[in-house]
Amino acid sequence: MSFFQVFVYLLAAVISVPLAKRLGLGSVLGYLLAGIVIGPFGLRLVGSAHGDVMHIAEFGVVMMLFVIGMELRPAVLWKLRGPIVGLGGAQMLGTAGAVAVLATWLGLRWQMAVAVGFIVAMSSTAIVLQLLSEKDQMRTAGGKSAFAVLLFQDIAVLPILALLPLLATVAPTGGADHAKNAISDLPGWQHALVVVAAIAAVILGGRYLLGPFFRYIAATHLREMFTVTALLLVVAIALLMQRVGLSPALGAFLAGVVLAESKYRHQLETDIEPFKGLLLGLFFISVGAGIDFAVIVDQPATIALLVVAVLALKFIVLLAVSRVSRLEPSQRYLFAFALAQGGEFAFVLCSFATQGGVLVAQMANLLGVTIALTMAAAPLLMMINERFVQPRFRSVLPAREPDEIEERDNPVILAGVGRFGHIVARLLVVNGFGTTVLDNDAEQVETLGRFGIKSFYGDATRLDLLHTAGAARARIFIIAIDNEEKALEVVDLVQENFPKLRILARATSRQHAYELLRKGVTDVYRETFGSAVDLSVHALGMLGLEGERARRTAQIFREHDEASVREMAQVQDDDDAAYVSLARLHIENLERALASDREMFNDAAGQNPERIR
To answer: What is the pTM of this model?
Structure first.
C-alpha cells in the first residue's frame, strides 16, 4: 500500500466524518460513505476490492477484535451471564433457525441453509458499540441487552467455526491460502478436532506462560516493549489460527481474551487505546470500499430483496426475543434496531464456509454484499429509531403529577439535587435553614428521601409550581440544574415573575456562565472551578511551595479568573477576534499579578527568614 493510498484514506476520513456528524448521520456512516467514494467502485483512488482494500480491512478487523477481546474480562462475562446466555442464545438460535427454514424453503440444501443462518445471525460489534456510545445509550436497558448479545455472538464464533467443516457438501475453494493450511487435507472431523486443540493450546498457554513472559518484558522498563509484545502475541496467534485454517481475526480475538486476564492488561490497553479509534475507522472505510457494486448492478432486485429480508427477519426475531425478556417497549425497539444488521464476523464465517466447501463462491459473494449493505444501513436504522420511533413512546408515557408541596414558607428554594445540588441542600439543612428542594427526576427524589433529604418532584420551569413552592415569599432561589437550557429558562421565569428573589446559579461550563451573566445573574458559581483551585493549592504544596504562598497564588488566580469571566461575558459569541484578544490580555494581566506577588513575597521572606520555614 503506497503513501498516496494512506493519504487518501486519511483525507477521506477527515472530510467525511465531520461532515456526517454535522448532518446528524454519525461517524460510522461517514466512514462507510468515505470508503464507497474512494473505493474501487467509486473514484478508484485505492486498489482493487480483492487487493489493497481487503488487506487493509483484514488488518483493521484483526486489531479491532484484539481490543474487543481485551475488554471481555471474566468478571464482565460472569456479571452478564444471564443476558448473555439467555438473550444471546435465543437471538442466535432464533435468527439462525428462521433463516435456515426460509433458505431451505427456497431450495438450498439443509447444510447450506444452516450455515447461512449462522452467518446472518451475526451483528457488527464495532458498529453497534460505536453507535450506542455516540448516542450515550450503552447504559440503557436496551444498550446493555445489545452488548450481552454481541458478547454471546463473539464467543459463539468458536463453536460455529468448528461446526462448519461438518456441513461441507461441495469441493473446497480455498485457493492458495487454503492449500497452505497444515491440515487442509484432513477429513472434516479431524480438521475440527485440530481446530479445537489449537484454540485450547492458545488458552492454556496464555494462562500459564503469559505471566512469566510479561514479567521478563517488564524488567526492561521500556514502555514501548509492551506494545511490541502485544503485537507479537497477536501476530503469532493469528498465524497459528491461519495455519489450522481459521481466520487471523479470530486469533487476534483469542489473544485479546487471553490478555484480559493478565495483570498487565491495563497498561496494554493504555498503550493501544490511541490506535483503537483509527483502526475502527479503517475497518469501516474498508467495509464501504469493499462493497462490490458490480454484483449489485448485475442483480439489483435480488440484492435489494436480500437486504430487506435480512433486516426485516432479524428485526422481527430481535423484537420477539426482547419481548420475552420483558424489556420495556421503547428499549425493545432500540435493541432490535441496533442489532438488525450483519456483522464483521459474518465475513469471516462466509470466507471459511467457502474455503471448506460449505458454500459455493457465487452464493458467498451475494451473501457478502448483502451483509455489507446491511452494515451500511445500521446508522440509518438507529436514526429511524431515534427520530421516529422513540418520540412515540415518550409522547404516550403518562406524566407524573408534581408532588404537593407542604413547605411554602422556607427562605430558600433549590432547583436540582444532582451531584451539585444535593451538597448545597445538605449544607443548608444541617445549618437549620428551611429549604424547599425541587427536582424533575422522580427516581432521584425517591433516592434522596431514603437518605433523609426531603425533596419534591416537579418541573421548576412551571410557574404554578414555583408559586406553590413559595417563591413569592422566599429570599433566595438556587438553580443547580445540570441542563443548561433548562437552567436559563428558569432564570427567565424567576426574573420575570419574582424580581425581588435573589438568584444563585450553578454554571456547568464557562460558556454557560457567560450566558447566565448576560441575563443579569450576578451570583454565578462554576461547578468545577472551586474544586480545581483546591486541588491546585494541594499540588503546589506537594511540589514544595510554602502554604501561605500557594493560597495567595490561588486567591489571585481566583479573583482574576472571576473578573475575566464577567468581562468576557460581554463579548458577542460570533466575535472570535475580540474574544481571543481579551482572553490573552487577561492571561498577561494574571502573569504580571503573580510575578508581582512573588517579588513581594520574596522581599518579605528576605526580611523575615523564619517565614519560609
So the answer is: 0.58
